[in-house]
Write a structure and sequence with these properties.
Layout (H helix, E strand, L loop, with lengths): L13 H16 L6 H12 L4 E7 L6 E6 L3 H13 L6 H7 L5 E4 H4 L8 H6 L7 E8 L5 E8 L8 H9 L1 H15 L7 H11 L8 H11 L4 H8 L3 H15 L4 H13 L2
Antiparallel strand pairs: 1-2, 1-5, 3-4, 4-5
């Protein structure tokens, strides 16, 4: 595939286009088989050089369930596949958007992340800390209310997807959703309630409940998710000055002085859940 600069149109060589069509045909042929996700990932790899992918089942009120991954380095798998699915997803902007009713489609991380997310400790830990700096997502609705998400990770090599590459991925969204839907209809059982997630979600909701007021806990959650003072004020319908007051009070009550300490305290809280 040819690599275009951000200011020039993205084109595929004839050979790259033939490879994409051949891989897409293979993915369609295997779309109802157990290895359908592997073929879908391979087809996308012929379209755009993506470093790693992860396909998950997203269910309302439950932890995401990993179905397939490709290209995640062994050194980072514990962080990405262990810590993330154990608790880290609770602060992930994409998971939060899905739980909030995000419509099916294609999204780039910048489309849905809070305004201060890229300065948050969560981003530094779960993205930069694992060699990833950006993420894109396909999301497909399933007939039983669940969703399939396909995440595309980039940044480990220092390269980023150009706007044209992102547009190309967005353009094939309908066929990606169709392939995800075919796989789900023939390979996924009806959803089941996750009791483990229920206790983890309760721990998240009750973080700081012994010393913080309800509003202070709401502000703490917004900070942890990567919202700025201005964004928090808009989301909660209060003034920025009130947000700063709540932030100051919750820091005092928790005996901390920074967002980094708040994040560390929150992670310790989840580990004890």
């Amino acid at each position: 595939m040819t690599q275009a600069s951000p200011d020039t149109p993205l084109t595929l060589t004839l050979g790259a286009l033939q490879q994409w069509h051949a891989a897409l045909q293979c993915a369609l042929v295997h779309s109802e088989s157990p290895d359908a996700l592997q073929h879908l990932a391979a087809a996308l790899g012929h379209l755009v050089a993506v470093e790693s992918m992860m396909i998950s089942l997203e269910s309302q009120g439950q932890a995401p369930q990993l179905l397939y991954q490709q290209g995640i380095p062994l050194v980072h798998r514990d962080a990405v596949l262990g810590r993330y699915f154990a608790a880290g997803y609770l602060l992930d902007p994409f998971c939060l958007a899905v739980q909030g009713g995000l419509a099916e489609g294609f999204y780039h991380l910048q489309d849905i992340a809070p305004d201060n997310f890229f300065d948050s400790d969560y981003y530094k830990t779960y993205y930069l800390g694992t060699g990833c700096s950006e993420d894109s997502y396909y999301i497909a609705d399933l007939c039983d209310g669940r969703k399939l998400s396909l995440s595309l990770f980039q940044g480990r090599s220092g390269t980023h997807l150009s706007p044209q590459q992102i547009d190309l991925l967005r353009a094939v969204e309908p066929v990606v959703r169709e392939l995800l839907g075919r796989y789900a209809r023939h390979n996924l059982e009806p959803g089941k309630v996750s009791l483990e997630h229920g206790s983890l979600q309760a721990a998240f909701d009750s973080f700081g409940c012994e010393v913080l007021t309800d509003r202070e806990r709401e502000v703490a959650h917004m900070i942890l998710r990567g919202h700025s003072v201005k964004s928090t004020a808009l989301e909660l319908g209060i003034s920025p000055e009130t947000v700063r007051m709540h932030r100051k009070n919750l820091y005092l009550k928790l005996g901390i002085n920074s967002q980094s300490e708040l994040f560390a305290r929150f992670i310790d809280w989840l580990r004890q859940a």
